[in-house]
Design brief:
The structure is a single chain. With about 220 residues, the protein is mainly beta. The chain has helices at about 1-15, 180-190, and strands spanning about 25, 35-40, 45, 45-55, 60-70, 75-80, 85-90, 95-100, 110-115, 120-125, 130, 135, 140, 145-150, 165-175, 205-210, 215. Strands 1, 4, 9, 10, 11, 12, 15 and 17 form an eight-stranded antiparallel β-sheet that branches. The protein has a seven-stranded antiparallel β-sheet with strand order 8-7-6-5-14-2-16, with no helix packed on it. The radius of gyration is 16 Å and the shape is globular. The relative contact order is 0.29. It binds 2-acetamido-2-deoxy-beta-D-glucopyranose and calcium ion. 2-acetamido-2-deoxy-beta-D-glucopyranose binds near residues 44 and 140.
């Protein structure tokens, strides 16, 4: 455990935060290795909100946001299942499946999820549309490793190319509390929201492995 903590601290020291405003991560091919590891501020969370925007043409299952801890590979996992309309959110290895999701391919989707240990409830917002609130329970998420592009089946590894992400991801934020639905709406509309206090896209510490590119967002031309 001390060794793991030391590793976490060394990683934290090695990376300098970057402002990725106007940028995106491009994952251009299916691999079992390419990923971005994000460094959180804080190591112990009893509530979480994650928001990001992503686009893909994958029909198979894939990870959108994977957090593991030394004891749980799915400490906080946003996952597109094989069934067309299911997006699941796992908290401390307890999954909530959200059905009826209109997750169209080749379309940018803002995706947010909230959880707090007090109520044990998880909620998903796809394109700003709230799911129902479901119970997963769950205790503190401690010592997290956050990965984009792959799904962890062990602490920082255990990747499966058939669950890898191919496409683009941007505007990743994470908070150590459950945002209100109005705050979620401000993120979705990109309207003056408070950036994540655990992960902030405008000051992100990260490490890329394999073919992952940092590119400018492709914005509409006027
Ligand atoms: C859970 O996390 C919160 C927030 O970091 C902390 O105050 C609390 O002591 C933690 N509880 C346990 C049991 O570790
Ligand atoms: Ca897993």
């Amino acid at each position: 455990m001390a060794f793991l903590l030391l590793l976490v601290m060394l990683t934290a020291c090695a990376a300098t935060p970057q402002d990725l405003s106007g940028k995106m991560f491009t994952f251009p091919e299916e691999t079992q290795t390419a990923n971005v590891r994000l460094t959180t501020s804080g190591q112990d969370f009893n509530a979480v909100t994650v928001c990001l925007r992503s686009i893909t043409d994958l029909a198979r299952s894939h990870a959108l946001f994977s957090v593991s801890t030394p004891s749980r590979d799915n400490a906080f996992l946003i996952f597109k299942g094989t069934a067309n309309d299911i997006i699941s959110v796992d908290v401390v290895n307890n999954g909530a499946r959200f059905g009826g999701q209109d997750y169209k391919p080749n379309t940018w989707h803002p995706i947010c999820s909230t959880w707090d240990s007090e109520s044990g409830l998880v909620q998903l917002w796809l394109d700003g549309k709230p799911s129902i609130r479901k119970f997963t329970g769950g205790s503190n998420i401690t010592g997290p490793i956050v990965i984009l592009g792959q799904e962890q089946d062990s602490y920082g590894g255990g990747f499966d190319r058939r669950q890898s992400f191919v496409g683009m991801i941007t505007d990743v934020h994470m908070w150590d509390y459950a945002l209100s639905s109005c705050e979620i709406q401000r993120y979705v509309d990109d309207r003056n929201f408070s950036p994540g206090n655990v992960l902030n896209w405008r000051a992100l510490e990260f490490q890329t492995t394999g073919r992952v590119l940092i590119e400018n967002k492709q914005l509409p031309c006027y």
